[in-house]
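Incident log, structure service

09:12 report received: a user says their structure output differs between two submissions of the same chain.
09:20 pulled the input from the user's history:
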Amino acid sequence: MSADTIFGKIIRREIPADIQYEDDLVLAFNDVNPQAPVHVLIIPKKPIATMNDIGEEDRLVVGHLFHVAAKLAAEKGLAQDGYRTVINCNEHGGQTVYHLHVHLIGGKPLGWPPFTERLKTA
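09:34 re-ran on a clean worker, output below:
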């Protein structure tokens, strides 16, 4: 896996993105292929390839990813009705960009029954 990804290029402003939030640790931008009315990707500025690569030293930034997700959810009016956060890990988990990222998805009902309930009937 390459250490440089499309997300690294977005962080360096080599390619454009619709940025929703930025601070010293993270960058958040709208997904170019949204799965709901709100679909924001929140990424650490430090390149971390997958969940498996999170180290002890990354605890602050990983917690901050979720803090920013909750902040954006509130700002976008999702907090009351609810939203989904997702992290995909590796190929079988659906990860396509190997730079850790949290999907913040909401603005419509996201399916029922929950995934775990659908597994019981499969």
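09:41 both user submissions now match this output. Likely a transient worker issue. Closing.
09:42 reviewer note: The first helix runs from residue 6 to 11. Residues 6-121 form a domain with the HIT family, subunit A fold (CATH 3.30.428.10).
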